[in-house]
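Please produce the structure of this protein holding adenine.
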Amino acid sequence: MRLGIISALSEEQQGLVEAMQGPHKLIHGQRDYWVGRLWEIDAVCVLSRIGKVAAAVTTTVLVEKFGVTHILFTGVAGAGARTIAVGDIVVAESLVQHDMDASPLFPRFEVPLTGLTHFPADHALGTRLLEAASGFLDEDFVDAIDPRERAAFNLTRPRIHRGLIASGDQFVDDRAHINDLNAALPGLVAVEMEGAAVAQVCHELGVPCAVLRTISDNANEDAATDFLRFVKSVAARYAFYIVRRFCLQ
Ligand code: ADE
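Below is the modeled complex.
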């Protein structure tokens, strides 16, 4: 396995490059690719920046130039349903581009000429992530997350969900918008801005991928404030511990 690990922002991946053995940096297409070993796994870590195009080009370069065989995206997301809370962990079963709409030529959400609305995530990789996430919650969580942060975000016993992740080039911060997406996309668990682009590229190139997201906000009018606080203080802790467990499994 040669694992490509992508996050949009540095806060979502902090600590991973520092944990690499023998890291060396290669700059390509205005991004820093860190190549090395991560807990005995051959890995390449990179920040894509935000949005579907940024994620798609980063994924393509990881596969075509760096020869990765598997891709893992880790970051934060807005809750896609009322039953999902800030601090919960979400693993993608499949991913959809919620701002894709070429109707009436093609059905809403269908990526034209692929016949697909939903792109699958790799089931075995997702299961491995779920196991890593539950190990994190059971064994690392209390020590990993500062008690003040746990209190501030009301993180008592975060839950893990597997389901549909919707991506679009929009930060969703409007209750009516998230309600519409929830109604239009059964099984929706989270909204973010990159995962479905990664999944489409991986599908087209035949590379298995997994997407792990920690819920930072409720995609409502408070989303921007909640997102900024969460990403600054908590997101990297989740990512570090879960990716470590994923690699060591
Ligand atoms: N990432 C984290 N929160 C998000 C939101 N509300 N919308 C889009 N992407 C996000």
